[in-house]
VWA domain-containing protein (Cytobacillus citreus), 466 residues
Amino acid sequence: MIRNSIFIVLTMIVFLAGCNNEPEKNASNTQTTSSTQSPSDLNQSKESAENSPENDSNTQPSSDSNQSKNQIVLTDEQILMKPPGRFAGSSYDDQNVQEALDQLPTSLTSDQYMEELLLLLAEDYRPYVTTFINFESEITVNIPRPNEKITLPANKKLHISILLDASGSMQAKIQGKSKMDSAKEAIQSFGDKLPKNAEVSLRVYGHKGSGSQEDKELSCSSTEEIFHGQGKQTDQIKTALQDVEPVGWTPIANALESVKQDIDPETTDSVVYVVSDGIETCGGDPVQVARELNQSKVKTIVNIIGFDVGDEGQKMLRQVAASGGGEFTSIDNDEALKNYLNKAYERLRGEWTRWIEKGTGAANIQKEEKQGALNKTRETMQLLANQENSNLLGALQYLKTKKENDFPWSEIFKKINERKNFAWSYADETGRRLFNEVSQNGKQVYDDIKDEGDQNIDDLTDKNNN
């Protein structure tokens, strides 16, 4: 009885031991099968495993599966950005290439041969592909767009000073209107048309005291800037002029001297318009001050508008204008004053016309430069593809003479030509696409500047005629 019990226990131990070894056998058999199965059998096994209930989300994928999933398809740029072969470009040498070809294994597939050939002879496309990748097809002209008023180029800082004579003689009337009222209207109209980003200063002189001898010192020392701002703010000039009354003497030199403190040191162009109906009456030397302004660091042009001035006064005021590098203009009525200021405005509008010419010219130059760079990159890359193709075909011909009949010559030949077509077409299509983008962008910028500029000038012409 005891012997039977011992036999039963031993039998169970052996049985259990056999069961524990079964998974190892199965694993071993599976590994062996995997190593001997064909690709199609492996795919079937993979599909079966994937469809198996045991293959749930918690199952760890095999390394083969990971490799399959991690395969990366290279973009055209990535393919062409690979390093060049050992004998690319100026390093090419027939003898060295042939010696390297002689060292290749005797039995390679067409893909392997192609890979070896590229390691030797692939040309360096990286500079050209990089140019295409980083190419900016946008056309940018850094000139401010026009608005309701003229806008000067950003690098041009214009200061316009208007000096208004407020001496007592400006009370006199011409055709029923005081010279002061006519001057105020003309200055306001002129201000409305100034470049919106110009710096504008309006200064009056002789507006304090009276024309009496007792008030001469006060009046001759009176010069005051009543407006200082941008051209877009000149609607405030009318308010600034409201309380100005013609009462005193005529300190032209003092007023011109005060202009120096009104001009920003960063100003590039400065123009002064002096509206006066008489000569200096305060003992100053306006000729000398005008010369100093014209010869200063910020060269200032001094123009004199003689409003109903006699012959003697005109002679002196002409000297002031000549010393200031400007011009003297004699005005005998309020319409003439407005017309003169409109002509001055026309000269400023010429800045706008040149602005348009500069903007459209810059757009064209930039477009042509970009297109030229694209054409050069495209053509150079295509020439390189042709050269690479010639070198690869030469190497293939050499291999053909050295190999047995089973050498996959036609397959390699096809791959070499596909390589050339691929590189050549990439350069052609990419270069032409970017070329067209540049053309469209350049035309758009040109048209924007031209259309807006012409419309703005038309609007200003209408204002000038009204």
Observations:
- The beta strands are 158-165, 173-174, 177-178, 199-205, 223-230, 269-276, 300-307, 325-331.
- The two ends are 135 Å apart (CA to CA).
- The CA atoms of residues 159 and 199 lie 5 Å apart.
